Amino acid sequence: MNLKIAVCVKSVPNPDQFSSLSLDPVSKTLIREGIDSVINPADLHAIELAVQLKEQYGAHISLISMGPQQAQKELRMGLAYGPDDAFLVSDREFGGADSLATSYVLAKALEKAGPFDLIILGNESADGATAHVPSQVGIIMGLPNMTDIVGFSLDENGKTRVKKRLQGRYAIYEAELPLVIGVAKDINKVRTAGMRGVLGAKNKPLTVWSVENFEDLDKTRIGLSGSPTQGGEYHTASFGREATELKGSPEEIASELSNIIRPILGRE
Amino acid sequence: MICKKEIWIYAETESQKIAPSYYELLGKAHELKESLNEAYEIVAVILSDSAEEVSKELRSSAVDRVYCLEHEKLGNYNPEYYAAVLSEFAKKHKPEMLWIAASAIGGELAPSVAALLNTGLAAHCVDILINDKGELVHLVPAFGGKLLTEILVPKTRPIMASVKPGIFREREIACSKEAELVFERAEILDSMESRFKLVEEQEMQSSGLPVEKAEVVLAGGRGIGNTQTWEKLKELAGRLDGAVGYTRSLVDIGLEENELNMIGSSGKSVRPKLYMGFGISGASHHISGIKDSGTIIAVNTDDEADIFDSSDYKIVADCDRILSALLEVL
Ligand SMILES: Cc1cc2nc3c(=O)[nH]c(=O)nc-3n(C[C@H](O)[C@H](O)[C@H](O)COP(=O)(O)OP(=O)(O)OC[C@H]3O[C@@H](n4cnc5c(N)ncnc54)[C@H](O)[C@@H]3O)c2cc1C
B252: CA distance to ligand 1 center in Å? Predict the structure, then answer.
């Protein structure tokens, strides 16, 4: 089997540094100084799945991303895990896109770089976290799609089994390729890229496409103006509480806690 | 006849019963309706192979109408069938708003329907309101709940919103009249064959009480460190008739297998009377899921851990020692 697999990846601000994000008190714009960008964590699991399938059956893996020019760095990093080439769709006109406008552009890029047998996305991005894009890419391309996938297998005939997480249970579906799936982090453990991978990634093809590279793009569906949702102001979420500190030996603390807890529970 | 604008609520069912999230959305719909200066109707929509039973429950739930879309192919959840039926029906009746709980099913159904209708969807709203300019505004979390941002859907209809179960509160709403029940066969499925075939369902392994329903939640994070300490926390939870929740890092270090009772922006939102967090740093991803709890108690060895900024009681100590001591007295 010679599979063609695409993995959609996104460059996001490092989630471990979200606590240092702040808002400009006057303009209400986001201050993200000093926060570096990384590959969206869930996307690493999508790459891992693709690489595992490549090891099993042989495959050509392409990374596809929409984002600023700087996202080339994350694509290079992604290539270090084993994919073969990468495509970055980057243009000011694509900026400010919501999930639907993003999905439209990704779908166009996937058509252009494809066709693919399997399109894998991380289930959600760390920054927006809508978990919309996998389904919406699938719908726009007219391909069967499913999200929150925690298990995936493929047999020699191209028949797949996908394990989807539902409330308190898993549902297992059979489906034929081509397919679009959004994978949850539970699906696998991501390997480390290793020095060889990083060095090898330098010479892999990375193509950047702008609006001009697409012939049949519907401009009413891209960027901020093509987005049905519009973002308003940011607000700081206030979770703040004033904590009372309990001090002493563990035994002293436990007995104090017991006095606090019992009335809450309605116990004597 | 002038048709009133409609707010549709997708009424998800769990084993032939209406899911609690429906009542949470309904409460918000009534609240919003009061602040709208136009008359709106609130409409419930069910997809089912047989809606007879559940429609009875909805009939007196303070909605104007219940649409029951039936087809034998709607018995089990299938993303293609569900999205096709709901979007077709919305195309025909043109509701002004369409709200869907962002449950395991709704979290997939909502974006699919939005893409089919080419409309805007505000994801995981924590509030839906009318601002001082008279616009419909959705407040949604961004950056793991660290920030909230406003989402508007100015041009396309329906304006779609998804809301995580447990975010809105159920409200007592007087039901003045019974809803009109409308049954319709989802004919579009007659000629449609899904490309997904359900072959098996598996129960998820879970340790006891679901966190989102518990009055007491004990949660552990990476600082729990080992199985013995984790067992102590579970034992204490048992004694307090509480449920056990955890952070993503606790899954990462292998103390739990799946994210079923993970609390936070990608997991469950909880609102217990008492929440106790052990060895949890307090990432906004986690805090956004506990912030509405009654009393929050946190135990962490790091005096500066972020979780203390969201706590009522702060204990700087080793969580294993505190758990052991608590097991002696509770
Ligand atoms: C898109 C996205 C979504 C996410 N969604 C979620 C979510 O829904 N829920 C969630 O929980 N996380 C989520 N996360 C992960 C989140 O960002 C944090 O990484 C996670 O919550 C941290 O878990 P933790 O507090 O257990 O671990 P850590 O941050 O590693 O903190 C461990 C804490 O334990 C303390 N400690 C260590 N030893 C001890 C000891 N012996 N006694 C007491 N304290 C000790 C340390 O001081 C530290 O504060 C998400 C991340 C991303 C990117």
Answer: 10
